[in-house]
Amino acid sequence: MAGMALLGVRMVLDTFKQSLDKVKGVQVKSYGQLCSIARALDVVGDRWTLLIVRELLIGGALRFGEVQRGLPGIATNLLTQRLRDLETNGVVAREPAPGNPGTPTYRLTERGRALDGVLRELLKWGAPTVPDAPSDAIFQMHWLSQPARFLLADHRPDEPPIVIRFSTFDDGFDLTAADGTITVDPCRRDVSPLAGVTGPGPVLVALLQGAMPLPAAIAQGVDVTGDAAALTRVLPAPQASTNVPGHYN
């Protein structure tokens, strides 16, 4: 009887060890390949990871809650784990918030900012799929700041610099056209935009892609306050379709 009991204990321990090994395998994921693509995906290939990078590219140094607001649907514990993994791999740095050392902020390291080019290529690759997104797909205005960097251009570089504000401080960005260049930043309180833009996500995407002229976009819900002509300085010429790879130059 004692031998059978001991055997039963060993079987339980073996089962527990196998389960623990599986958990460890999930926590320490690697393709185990001597390939730079596989090695990169070991670091940033998990679900949500590149979207965390997107939020930090757009917003700079952000508190945990600010990152989470830009990632609707992510669980708090999962975001915590992803940020910890990115910090371990030198992609993200955690620092005390200015004036509030008890609250950390997260920012991209130099290595993390180098992923900007990766996301730009994903923008180009994903652009033709945007018109086919589900009708209930979530849209946040600040996400549009990244394609705006590449889709829009300063067509009147000899004119004075202008700032166009897309949406509000809660969820928006400032686009500056100056000397032939386009820059985007989180909304700033020390600037006076020449125009303001709000509207439905799909219509704004079509407008910025050049798939819809401004009058048609306004008819479909885009609202422009201030100097509407400021938008014509930066918008691309309307194209025949949004399903054109390579709109992001």
UniProtKB/TrEMBL annotation:
Keywords assigned by UniProt, alphabetized: DNA-binding, Transcription, Transcription regulation
Gene3D superfamilies xrefs: Winged helix-like DNA-binding domain superfamily/Winged helix DNA-binding domain
A Pfam family hit: HxlR
Domain HTH hxlR-type stretches: 35-134
Superkingdom of origin organism: Bacteria
Database matches in InterPro entries: HTH_HxlR, WH-like_DNA-bd_sf, WH_DNA-bd_sf
Protein name: Winged helix-turn-helix transcriptional regulator
Species this protein is from: Nostocoides veronense
